[in-house]
Write a structure and sequence with these properties.
Helix content is 68%, strand content 0%. By secondary structure, the protein is mainly α.
Length: 114
């Protein structure tokens, strides 16, 4: 008995499959299903074997612990990033004005000079 299916249920499924697929297609479908099931079992056992190997290797050679920096504050551990706002960073405003970008006041001054 397969699971909760009894003999009458299995016979009904086989008769229904015979009516739907016909006597010529049924053996071919059975072979295809058998091959697919066999390949699924092989892939599952291969995956299980790989996982067992990796876990046993992990138990034998545990990863190195991450060293903790003692006594340093969070500001000392990470570098300070420059501000993206040009009003807060005077070097950035000088760089942007010398890079050739024109503001509206620069354009007006150039048109008045002509």
């Amino acid at each position: 008995m397969i699971g909760s299916l009894g003999i009458p249920e299995l016979l009904f499924i086989l008769v229904l499959a015979l009516l739907v697929f016909g006597p010529r297609k049924l053996p071919e479908i059975g072979r295809t299903m058998g091959k697919a099931l066999g390949e699924f079992r092989r892939a599952t056992s291969d995956l299980k074997r790989t996982l067992d190997t990796e876990l046993s290797a992990e138990k034998l050679n545990p990863p190195d612990p991450i060293p903790q920096t003692a006594g340093k504050s969070a500001s000392e551990q990470q570098p300070i990033q420059p501000s993206a706002d040009p009003e807060e960073d005077p070097k950035r405003t000088e760089d942007s004005s010398s890079s050739g970008s024109s503001s509206s006041s620069d354009i007006e001054a150039k048109t008045d000079a002509n």
